[in-house]
Amino acid sequence: MSIANAIHASTVETYIESHLSTPDPAITHARETTHQHNIPSISLSPGQGRFLKMLASCTKAQNILELGTLGGHSTIWLSRAIKERGGKVTSIDINPLHRDVATENLRFAGVKVPEDVEILLGAGLDILPSLEKDIQSGVREPFDFVFIDADWPNQWRYFDYGVRLARGTGSVLFVDNAVAALLDYGVVGPEERDEGFVSLVEEVGRDERVEAVVVQTVGARSYDGFLMAVVN
Ligand SMILES: C[S@@+](CC[C@H](N)C(=O)[O-])C[C@H]1O[C@@H](n2cnc3c(N)ncnc32)[C@H](O)[C@@H]1O
């Protein structure tokens, strides 16, 4: 199968969604209100959201950390993954409008905020050290599943924190846009490499704490890929 067939990605995605997805008012509402507030349309697609939920469910995650809430679309999917086990999602975003819109969208979806989903406002690298302290002092549970989807230059720093904040063997880390970041910052491809950009893939490759894989993806919107890692 030639890569030239990737031109059909959009048509194939529409076909797949028409067969595998059912009307989901909470997801439709979240995506629409996010758009109405002029928040950029950079959330996962509904299919990717369902994949994330299925993955987190398979790992039997109880305590989930998300970096990058936006309008709460992916957060709704993650909250569905922990629903049966009565767990909790902690999501971090730097933008107060995103926090507010996400809170409304989660409540519309029937999710209790802050009981089931807690949204922490601030820069990821400012908040993560306090989460680490809370976990070390037993105030907070460590995380079983970490979803990283915030600013790309900090992907590795978030990943490093994610492993430190993880429960242990079998905990899962999932980083969106792992391939797009490589191309954008010139790590691979025709662009010149940005000085100072720390490559997630190179750092994870040296990291003996985890086993990792990058899966390249093609969808209606773009060519990209995610990195998934399991803690040893
Ligand atoms: C790609 S969007 C997240 C999409 C969301 N996960 C979804 O699929 O619905 C990235 C988010 O990261 C947030 N963000 C950017 N820089 C950040 C930082 N330094 N700390 C925390 N959040 C940040 C942005 O405000 C934005 O809401």
From TrEMBL:
<protein>
    <submittedName>
        <fullName>S-adenosyl-L-methionine-dependent methyltransferase</fullName>
    </submittedName>
</protein>
<dbReference type="InterPro" id="IPR029063">
    <property type="entry name" value="SAM-dependent_MTases_sf"/>
</dbReference>
<dbReference type="InterPro" id="IPR050362">
    <property type="entry name" value="Cation-dep_OMT"/>
</dbReference>
<dbReference type="GO" id="GO:0032259">
    <property type="term" value="P:methylation"/>
</dbReference>
<keyword id="KW-0949">S-adenosyl-L-methionine</keyword>
<keyword id="KW-0489">Methyltransferase</keyword>
<keyword id="KW-0808">Transferase</keyword>
<comment type="similarity">
    <text>Belongs to the class I-like SAM-binding methyltransferase superfamily. Cation-dependent O-methyltransferase family.</text>
</comment>
<dbReference type="GO" id="GO:0008757">
    <property type="term" value="F:S-adenosylmethionine-dependent methyltransferase activity"/>
</dbReference>
<dbReference type="GO" id="GO:0008171">
    <property type="term" value="F:O-methyltransferase activity"/>
</dbReference>
<dbReference type="Pfam" id="PF01596">
    <property type="entry name" value="Methyltransf_3"/>
</dbReference>
<dbReference type="InterPro" id="IPR002935">
    <property type="entry name" value="SAM_O-MeTrfase"/>
</dbReference>
